[in-house]
Amino acid sequence: MGNENREYQERRRILFFGLPWTFTKYTIGQEMLTINTGLLKTEENDCYMYKIQDVKLTTTLLERIFGLSTVICYTGDVTHPQLSLTHIKHGKEIKSFILEASEEARQKKRTLNTLDIGIADADEL
Questions:
Q1: Please, is 41 exposed, middle or buried when counting C-beta atoms within 10 Å of its C-beta (0-12, 13-18, 19+)?
Q2: Nearest in space to 51 (alpha carbons), one of 112, 100, 115
Q3: Buried b / exposed e across 23-36, counting CB within 10 Å, b at 16+?
Q4: What predicted TM-score, i.e. pTM, was given to this entire model?
Q5: Burial class for 73, CB neighbours closer than 10 Å (0-12, 13-18, 19+)
Q6: Which residue has the higher pLDDT, 49 or 120?
Q7: What would the 3-class secondary structure string for 32-83 be?
Q8: What are phi and psi for residue 102, nearest 5 degrees?
Q9: How many Å apart are CA 15 and CA 75, to the nearest integer?
Q10: Residue 112, pLDDT score
Q11: In sequence order, which residues have a C-beta less than 8 Å from that of residue 101 and are 6 or more positions away?
C-alpha cells in the first residue's frame, strides 16, 4: 500500500508559537519509534512498534492555538511503559500511522496483546 518505507521525523516544540527550539527529536518508522533527547548529554530511547499497545492523542487549548498536540504511546516495555511525543505537529496523522504500523508489526512477528483479567489459576479453583 505504499506505507512500507514511510517514516516521520518531528521535533518537540516549545508551546509558545510552536517553534522547534528544543533538543528532542522523534523518529517514527515502520519497525521502531526512537526518541533522541539532550544537547550535552544525549539519550536515545527506542521502542519496537510491536510493543506499542495503545495510542492516545491529547491537545490542550494552547496546543490547539499553535497547531500542536501530544501523542502518548502505551507500551509493553518495562523500562518505559509510556512514551510521550510532546508538542508535535501532525499529531492525528502520526497517531494513525503508529496504530497501523504497530498492528502490522504485531502481525508480522505473530505476537498478541494479552490482558490479565484476574482469572485464578486452575490450582486455586
A1: exposed
A2: 112
A3: ebebebebebbebe
A4: 0.78
A5: buried
A6: 49
A7: EEEEEECCCCCEEEEEEHHHEEEEEEECCHHHHHCCCEEEEEEECCCCCCEE
A8: -70, -40
A9: 26
A10: 66
A11: 3, 28, 29, 30, 31, 49
The three cell numbers of residue 88 are 508535535
DSSP state of 106: H
pLDDT value at residue 63: 93
d(CA 11, CA 18): 10
What 3-state class would DSSP assign to 52? strand
3-class secondary-structure state, position 92: helix
Digit-coded pLDDT (tens) for 40-80: 999 999 999 999 999 999 999 999 999 999 999 999 877 78
d(CA 51, CA 37) in angstroms, rounded, equals 21
Q: What percent of the chain has pLDDT over 90?
A: 59
15: Cβ contacts below 8 Å, ≥ 6 apart: 62, 63, 66, 68, 87
